[in-house]
UniProtKB/TrEMBL annotation:
Record keyword Repressor present: no
Species lineage: Archaea, Methanobacteriati, Methanobacteriota, Stenosarchaea group, Halobacteria
EC number assigned by the record: 6.5.1.1
Protein name: DNA ligase
Main function: DNA ligase that seals nicks in double-stranded DNA during DNA replication, DNA recombination and DNA repair.
Active-site annotation: 275
Gene Ontology terms, MF aspect: ATP binding; DNA binding; DNA ligase (ATP) activity; metal ion binding
Family according to the record: Belongs to the ATP-dependent DNA ligase family.
Pfam families: DNA_ligase_A_C, DNA_ligase_A_M, DNA_ligase_A_N
Cofactor(s) this protein requires: Mg(2+)
Recorded catalytic activity of this chain's protein: ATP + (deoxyribonucleotide)n-3'-hydroxyl + 5'-phospho-(deoxyribonucleotide)m = (deoxyribonucleotide)n+m + AMP + diphosphate
Gene name for this UniProt entry: lig
Amino acid sequence: MEYAALVDIYEHLEATASTNEKTAVLADCFDAASESQLPILATLIRGKLFPAWDSRELGVSSSLTREAIRKATGVDDDRVEEWWREYGDLGDAAALAVEHRTQQTLFSETLTVESVHETLTDLAEYIGEGSQSRRVDAVAKLLTSADPDEARYVVRTVVGAMRLGIGEGTVRDAIAVAFLDGSDEAIAVVERAHQLTNDFRVVAETARDEGVEGLRALDVELFRPLKVMLAQKAEGVGDALTEVQGDADAADETDATDIADDTETGQNAVRCEYKYDGLRTQIHKRGDEVRIFTRRLEDVTEQFPEVVSAVRERITAERCILEGETVGYSPETGRPVPFQELSQRIKRENRIEELVESVPVVTHLFDALYVDGESLLDESLRVRVGRLGDCVDTDPNDSDDSDVLRPATAVAPADESEAREFYEDALSSGHEGIMVKNLDATYQPGSRVGYMLKVKPLMEPLDLVVVGAKWSEGRKSEFLGRLHLACRVEESGELRDIGWLFSGLTDEQLAEITHRLEPLVTERDGREVRVRPEVVVEAEYEEIQQSTESESGYALRFPRFAGFRDDLSFDEVDSLSKVERLYAEQ
Ligand code: ATP
């Protein structure tokens, strides 16, 4: 298939805002694909070369891409940068550069989908000395053969911003339309297959070759991480107990303050566990082979060597997939450290040995998804927790603090007051709150279901002033969507920045904030601006963290836009001393 034909499809997808039309275009594309093209198109259509769980990266930054554009076209980098700034998209800049090429093309060949895919896939294999220039050369070679439109999409694929408005849901629906009957049921089957495999190549091929039955038969596989089950938020312990039991049996009219027994077994139907503030950890083990994945499916095995050895020593199952939360503990106080300290483990691979000493971790295990050939997803949590207990060689009464693997602290509370007491214990031990889980529930990969509710103290929102902003990337690149926020020093009235916020804004709010900020711009630097401090916003967040990167010394974890505070002027925004107080209290 010529790459130009795929470019036509990309253009069609980009030109329509209708999700139905995008689905139909994609479905036709999948339907027409040859046997070997389908797995390529299933990922390349969203500009991806690898499935989500595959940690390989192309390793081509935007500056290397610019070098490749210059090499292939002879167009000066300043000009390319100017176009990039003007259009907000390096793909468009590449198309213009090809159009204005100043050098003759010596080795031009017709690009095919297969050749582009192969060249780009190979980029991930270049390692070591000279690998950067090999990558530049490979991309430049593609651009040498590309017409402007082809160049646009090659570059967008390389930098990972396709701007087609195609999410996983559209690909899922298109597979259901192309190879099944397109019904809601078919879509649900494709969805589950994808949550399990995280691989549209496998899902598309299975749908084509084996239909619904084949998709249903797909199961967990070792070393292919699956999406984790997510929790819903409850307003408090009582609310969590009501909701989790409501889900256990919607028809059951039991008073929620009493915890219902499971009608068949007479056992308690609710389990509460400490909610740890760490890294969701999915452990895959086959003999001595161990890999650790995060909920974003990243492979972090190298970063947690002590967890790997503990798994080898303490997990008795030959093959298994277990889940837990990995938490950093302070060696001095024995209390959990804030998440950002643990996250150094993920960022700085070269200091791992040092960090193993300074931020020791414990993985608190709470679920078993697969044990020795048997998938447990359709089993109840009660069964799964039982299997977990069977395959971990851990004495729950063992108080040896050096244990890296421990079961999550849990109770099956008899009533609400016992659950509340457990919640208080969790907080006073320095944990975030509790998880309230339905013991009769199956595991739903990737879904946010009421089988698992999180209860934690709510943080008071902060009123902060916008002091700078960045243009968003991708589909929303014409908006100033990343807001640099500041609080105020009470005594002097000076503003001190407290990090960036970029979620919670609707498209209308993005347009409005851009409209409000543009006249306030005082300085520009690339795609970033500084603005006069006039726009005050309310920010919700999950936690305040210490930060060396901001003037205030703090940053908000998961800040979300909660509205404009037009009733406040910039000298009325929340003070640094309030931030300090909230930090100390949390
Ligand atoms: P979410 O994970 O629900 O999208 P989030 O990223 O804001 O939200 P939290 O609100 O902190 O996360 O709560 C959910 C997370 O809590 C889980 O993804 C998991 O990593 C973590 N967690 C901690 N303790 C447990 C536990 N005992 N059982 C399940 N998850 C737990």
